[in-house]
Amino acid sequence: MNKLSYALGMSMASNLMNSGLRELDVDSFVKAFTDVMINTNLSMSPQEANEVIQSYFRKKEDEMLVGNLKKGEAFLEENKKKENVITLSSGLQYKVLTNGNGAKPKATDRVKCHYHGTLINGKVFDSSVERGQPAVFGVNQVIKGWVEALQLMSVGSKWRLFIPSHLAYGEQGAGNSIEPNSTLIFDVELLGIV
Is 94 annotated in the active site? Predict the structure, then answer.
């Protein structure tokens, strides 16, 4: 029972930390846990407890949304001052790494690309380059920043895209790697129209 109890404590603490909870009043946590386990009078109703939890995580999510948006905006503001970075009216920024001379795809075309995606802190979240396998997809089946850029690129081009959150995954984010309101960076090589 000692090992099981310890294992359950580890599991609960890990789950709480993975949900973004890094600070906790351990004494209050242990008191509430003990009160439930010995079936004594609780300091709040289960409904009130649920409201407190939901309110806390809603506030944390709002702080993350605003924080990520501000970090992205500050990054893009500085980035647009760099040499050879082009900013479009949509907010999309790009830098030509290699200029191709092939055809430009239309929104209805399918393309073959190699890409390497990072967050503004440099963390890689997806890379066909690292997998060693180019991706094939419809131009209009990807995030808005890609749709816009691909139609401007010629086959054989390689561009670095700086994509504001509203042209990426917005407030939804994507998976565990891309938080809501994240600005993304992609190196995209347009290998062909298929």
Answer: no
For the stretch 11-70, pLDDT in tens is 999 988 887 788 889 899 999 999 999 999 899 999 999 999 999 988 988 898 999 999
Q: Which of 75, 94, 126, 163 is catalytic?
A: 126
pTM of the complete model: 0.80
126 catalytic per annotation? yes
Which of 75, 94, 162, 169 is catalytic? The answer is 169
* Cα–Cα–Cα angle for 161, 143, 187, rounded to 5 degrees: 25
What type of residue sits at position 62?
D
Residue 109 appears among annotated catalytic residues: no
Closest CA to 158 of 148, 167, 149: 149
Place of tokens 């030509």: 96
Q: Which distant-in-sequence residues (6+ apart) come within 8 Å of 44 by Cβ?
A: 52
Distance from C-alpha of 160 to C-alpha of 158, rounded to nearest angstrom: 7
